């Protein structure tokens, strides 16, 4: 029983990191109607900057701010320098460019830093705390939990309670109408990219200290899990990303703890298959209105 509680609690913490990254995919989909396959590679670039800042200053706060700023600037640069020049009639050209960008970024990081994993020390201890003699979350897991919940709530308020969030959504769904109403659609798309890339960088920064370390492919598995979560919940649903992230995180933790880490991807794939067979658009995908 103690082991189950520990696995579930750590799975929830890991799931919220997955949910954060899935939210970054939802943000970019809602803002630009594109699945950014370069999201993980861009986030790793930002975390390398954070790694350098932490090594130079010894401050995790500085590293955190550096990752967010670098992620946002990189998102703006990719949108303005690449994606804005790609035809937006269908998502496919943008996806192809994003895949090419993954190859370029990972190759450059590999050339500059090599294949070795660079360990990042967690800002807090990873020793599990005990509640009533039962080991649960570590201090670092609690920190991740709080940060993830704050960001999720903040994004929810932004998109559902603010004028900026409404403009971001309107620019993606009906750009021509939005232009007529005075919304600067190109600016909204850029802001969407910046916000999405910053959230992805935060998710990877929170994850790397609990893994082998930082290298060019540190976020690859996270991207696969997050993309699965986004599809499970529906690419238009932040709530689906949050719930799906927790479910996938707990599933991976339980399968790894009771069976084998090698079976975890198969369990996630099985879950994805079942959901898509039952509800192809995702669990929280909005129902389309019937037309005569």
Automatic annotation (TrEMBL):
Keywords: Amino-acid transport, Cell membrane, Membrane, Transmembrane, Transmembrane helix, Transport. It holds the Pfam family BPD_transp_2. It is a multi-pass membrane protein. Its main location: membrane. InterPro entries: ABC_transp_permease, BCAA_transport_permease. It is found in: Cell membrane. The chain crosses the membrane at residues 6-27, 34-53, 59-78, 90-113, 142-159, 188-208, 266-285. The keyword Disulfide bond does not apply. Belongs to the binding-protein-dependent transport system permease family. LivHM subfamily. This is Branched-chain amino acid ABC transporter permease. It comes from Isoptericola peretonis.
């Amino acid at each position: 029983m103690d082991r189950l509680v520990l696995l579930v609690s750590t799975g929830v913490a890991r799931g919220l990191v997955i949910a954060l990254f899935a939210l970054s995919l939802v943000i970019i989909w809602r803002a630009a109607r594109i699945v950014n396959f370069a999201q993980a590679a861009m986030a790793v670039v930002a975390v390398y900057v954070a790694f350098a800042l932490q090594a130079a200053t010894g401050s995790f706060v500085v590293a955190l701010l550096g990752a967010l700023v670098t992620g946002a600037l990189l998102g703006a640069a990719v949108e303005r320098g690449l994606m804005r020049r790609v035809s937006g009639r269908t998502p496919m050209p943008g996806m192809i460019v994003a895949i090419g960008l993954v190859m370029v970024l990972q190759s450059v990081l590999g050339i500059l830093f090599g294949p070795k994993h660079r360990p990042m020390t967690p800002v807090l201890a990873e020793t599990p705390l005990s509640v009533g003699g039962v080991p649960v979350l570590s201090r670092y897991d609690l920190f991740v939990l709080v940060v993830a919940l704050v960001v999720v709530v903040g994004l929810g308020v932004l998109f559902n309670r603010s004028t900026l969030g409404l403009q971001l959504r309107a620019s993606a769904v009906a750009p021509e109408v939005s232009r007529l109403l005075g919304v600067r659609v190109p600016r909204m798309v850029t802001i969407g990219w910046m916000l999405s890339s910053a959230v992805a960088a935060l998710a990877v920064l929170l994850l790397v200290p609990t893994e082998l370390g930082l290298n060019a492919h540190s976020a690859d598995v996270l991207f696969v899990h997050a993309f699965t979560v986004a599809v499970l919940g529906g690419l238009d649903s932040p709530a689906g990303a949050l719930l799906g992230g927790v479910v996938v995180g707990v599933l991976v933790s339980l399968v790894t703890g009771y069976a084998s880490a090698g079976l975890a991807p198969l369990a996630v794939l099985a879950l994805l298959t079942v959901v898509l067979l039952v509800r192809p658009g995702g669990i929280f995908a909005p129902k389309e209105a019937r037309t005569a």
